[in-house]
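Thread: quick sanity check before group meeting

JM: Hey all, I'm pulling together slides for Thursday and realized we never actually wrote out the predicted structure for the chain we discussed last week. Dropping the sequence here so it's in one place. If anyone has concerns about the input, flag it before I start.
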Amino acid sequence: MSSPIASTRFSVLDRSRTREGHDGPQALRDTVTLARTAEALGYHRFWVSEHHSVPGVAGSAPTVLAAAVAAATSVIRVGTGGVMLPNHQPLVVAEQFGVLASLFPGRIDMGLGRSVGFTDGIRKALGRGKEDAAAFAGQLTELLGWLDGTQRAHPEVHAHPAEGLRVPPYVLATGEGAAVAAAMGLPLVVGDLRGREKLIRAVEEYRGAFRPSAWAAEPHVIVAGTVAVAETDEEARRLLVPEAWSMACARTRGSFPPLAPTERIEAMTMTRKERDLFEGGLRGHLAGTEATVTAGLEQVLEQTGADEVLVTTSTYDREALVDSLGRLARIAGLG
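JM (edit): ok, ran it. Output follows.
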């Protein structure tokens, strides 16, 4: 019996995480460099994300960064994971992706989420509120209408150069995102791998409620999560340390700091709450040797029937990250 890995696509999402000793501009340049590496290794897509006013993340303008990534690569698909639609006017988003798809035909993906800013201050600066997330389905309908020319709210307005272009949409399953994707017949991106039962349930509900559309004739599932591969299980675990510490800081100190070196974090004296959150952040990911990760991936794919895996790993050591992606590419038979 063949492994499900052989028929699965593998892609990369990079959040442009900042690192101690390096500024935001360097993080963005590192993202572009990583995209070239992912393309050389044979990954299917390279996506970038949207975060506002987060000290540890430089990726605040995903369509702008996607343009830089697409210009620096040649064949890999490029997109967003995702543009947070409640933060934007659908017409403007359609126009931005229309420009991208015009400049890089056949390579652009439109990943869309329903999250709004994390704090009251960010939401106020964006001119949005928590309630705007509830309008996601209507915003998505309008956005797709601008692309296919069917929107009727403003019949005298057209989204140039987007109208008539085929820009594949993907819905990120935050909150009710999976239900929206199923009802509108759109591909689904769902994570993370640590909440396995919740993930499986979301995928099953999506497939059960899916209604074919002009955008997708059948359900399409991308599972997203952290995957770290190294020569030993311990080395792979150490790749997870910087992100786990950042998340622990965010939960205990109210700030999401740049990634710190693993050695310095392991030498820290943490409070009991910090230690509990930190250790929790290390658990549940697909991390280990090639044999360990292969077994874990096969289990995830058998449980979810996913069509694709979107890897979102962040760590301080960029050389180790590239090595991990190379080992995963070997597992997946890419190249």
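AS: nice. The longest strand covers residues 9-14. The first helix runs from residue 24 to 41.
JM: adding both to the slides.
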